[in-house]
Amino acid sequence: MAELTTIELDNYTVDRRPSIKEADRVKLWVRSGGRCAYCNKYLLDLVYGVNVGEMAHIVGWTKKANSPRGEADTPLNERNLVENLILLCAEHHKIADSKEAIEVFTVDRLALLKKNHEARIFRLTNLKDDSESVVIRLLGNIRGATVELSQQRAMVDLLDCDNKFAHFLDSFDKQGVEIDLTTLPEPEENWHNYWAMGKLIIDNAFHIIIEGVKKGRIRHLSVFAFSRIPLLVYLGYKLDDKIPTLLFQKHRGNTESWVWPEDGDDIEFEAIQTQNSSSSNVSLVLNISGTIELSTVPDSDDQNIYVLRPKNVLPTRDTVRKRQSLENFTKTYHDFLSQIEVDHKSCLEIRLFLAVPLTVAVVCGRGIMRNVHPSLTIWDYNGQTYAPALTINSRETN
């Protein structure tokens, strides 16, 4: 296309296309972090140091028919200002201005893209040195269902929820710490082998975590986990409480977000004893997201049975909707473990039955102190009855 030599403005004519002022160029590059607002591509060639970014107009720089989005009301003398410019790579600049995509890349869409990208860059570059968190993603099947969790989703949710930058340690597939349990068959097919294989996969994945902690590369963890409850308890046990850790909950509904909502009630919890026994045997039933009837607890005649439940509300799937509710549960659970040391000094094992959200399961494992608390045997429903799945904090584990 031949270069235009004259341009009709509102009430005057210039000889050539108006140039973008240096101040606006600098502002755009700084605000955009040198990255494409659409695909996040780094726009400085790392081999030759060549600038490969392009400053695109949201509203075209003239009102002529061939000017993309040029018919908008933005005054012509404001169209070269930084507010009307978006930094793109060459590929997406071409697409955004093409006739085929012009109805998709509208003024409003490009303006929102610019706003969100520049806001994200500002937040990321405003993070302090201690704002990095290593992400652990554990994904498995829950009765045939699983979820997807990309690095991008974990990165965005961690930034939105806690203003932290996600770091993914190298693994065999260069996708960070990925604990993949989705290849395991359903536990009902081979009960004992399922839990043994799940533990082994978690153990193998934790080698890189343990090494990172020893070398001081890992100072904070963020955990996104979706799997059968006993394996989440085991995950929590492997994490313990020595490294600051954030837990993220997959929330129900159409959204893919793992961000903790700010709305909802802060739920308190209580642990009550529902059955006394002269023995030192203890069973703990967690009725948090649902209710386990005590009549379904196997071999309960000689058990001291405790129920940990929400105060003044019925257990539902949204009981632990807010992070504060999870913290409240954590305190009640820790208090219960401490009280067991006082009331049942000879207790060597706690049997655990759980109707809980996924993050609560992780908390249950994480709260166990090695060589201090009794061992914890997690029972799970096998389709017919409750059966022991796995044990943590036993001599074999230690």
UniProtKB/TrEMBL annotation:
Q: Where is the SMODS-associated and fused to various effectors domain?
A: 211-392
Under Pfam families, the record lists: SAVED
Which InterPro entries does UniProt cross-reference here?
A: HNH_nuc (IPR003615), SAVED (IPR040836)
Please name the CDD domains in this protein's record: HNHc (cd00085)
Record NCBIfam families: SAVED
Q: What is this protein called in UniProt? A: SAVED domain-containing protein
